[in-house]
Amino acid sequence: MFTSVAYDADKQILCPRFRKSGDVYRYFEFAVTDYQAFLDAESRGRFFLAHIRDRFPFERMAKLQAA
User: Per-residue pLDDT for 9 more than 70?
Assistant: First the structure.
């Protein structure tokens, strides 16, 4: 589901990049305990759908292009 995921613990922001679309989102107020649960999940895609999508404030960032 993701090509990459970044996390900023100081700002509590999760930044996944989605495989199909290449879109990058920023999910705010994402605690380090939530990030650890995401990392430990058997399926990060299922975890995202059940526990992250539509549950945290977010914004879509500009689509990243390969150089």
Answer: yes
